[in-house]
Amino acid sequence: MKVPRLRTALGIVLALGVLWVLILQLDHGLTRYRTKQRIATLRSDPSPIRREAAAFWLAENASRIDPVLVQPTSLAALNDPSVDVRRSVGAALVELGIRSAPVIPALAVALKDSDAFVRVLSASGMKTVVLETGQGREIAIPTLIEALKDSNETVRVRAARSLVELGAGDRAVPALAEIARGNSAWNRHFALELLEKIGPNARAAIPSLIDATKEHDDVVRAVAASALVAIGEPDAARPVLEEIEETSQDWEARQIADSALKRIVDEARARRPSSNDSRPELPRRH
Q: Phi/psi of residue 63, each to 5°?
């Protein structure tokens, strides 16, 4: 009795496996068919609404579609008059690039697009593709450095961030120092954090960081002082950090200040290996 049951069970498992393979093949074929439809729409449909819908579908399904099939049309669509088409195509190209399609040159072109969002997407996408594939760095780095001159501050911040994550953050220091003195609180905060990540190679930004420690926003002040610690200027940062830790009503600012002060203590202790039984104390105001 056991043998027929076992054969029946194996037969069911085999049938389910065959059914699953057929479903995958059907899905692959359907995806390919739909991809070709969207490509045709992008190439020749006069309606910007239909082209935008096609580009959006390609972006949503970029992880599933054949890069070889869609890449030529996507590259051409970067010149589409519709900004929404170009935005969706840019997003699709990043995903295609992660799957080893050679898209860095196309993203370099998109980084000169008239739309700031497309340029932001391209600056971030370049970094993602290079880190995921290890390819295109020789094009990405010079292009991102050039993007530090962009008229849009957010584009400059994104380009700087990509350079930092690609290990070329020192090239972004002058641009970040300028942004740290800009009008956008969000971009200032972002620039200060990037300068902190760059560390000692960001010494040229010290005047901007000191200015930022004098602002009214305690979080901005704390981040700027923390960056000074990372750069190697703890004496300039400590009074600001102590004041924030003791008097600020902002929880985030106090957390940043506390972390930076602990780093100062740890670094001081590391420089005094002979003092095994003592912990360097930070002077406190009374």
A: -75, -10
For tokens 């029946």, the residue is 8
Interval 106-159: pLDDT, tens: 999 999 999 999 999 999 999 999 999 998 999 999 999 999 999 999 999 999
For the segment 54-100, what is each residue's pLDDT rounded down to a tens digit?
Answer: 999 999 998 888 888 888 888 889 999 999 999 999 999 998 888 76
DSSP letters, the chain, are -HHHHHHHHHHHHHHHHHHHHHHHHHHHHHHHHHHHHHHHHHHH---HHHHHHHHHHHHHTTTTS-HHHHHHHHHHHTT-S-HHHHHHHHHHHHHHHHTT---HHHHHHHTT-SSHHHHHHHHHHHHHHHHHHS--HHHHHHHHHHHTT-SSHHHHHHHHHHHHHTT-GGGGHHHHHHHTTSS-HHHHHHHHHHHHHHGGGGGGGHHHHHHHTTSS-HHHHHHHHHHHHHHT-HHHHHHHHHHHHHH---HHHHHHHHHHHHHHHHHHHHT-TT-TT--PPPP---
Q: How far, in Å, CA of 135 to CA of 107, rounded?
A: 13
Domains of the chain: 49-167 (1.25.10.10), 171-286 (1.25.10.10)
**Residues with Cβ < 8 Å from 276, sequence gap 6 or more?**
none
What distances in angstroms separate CA 84 from CA 31, 104, 185, one per listed residue? Answer: 23, 20, 28
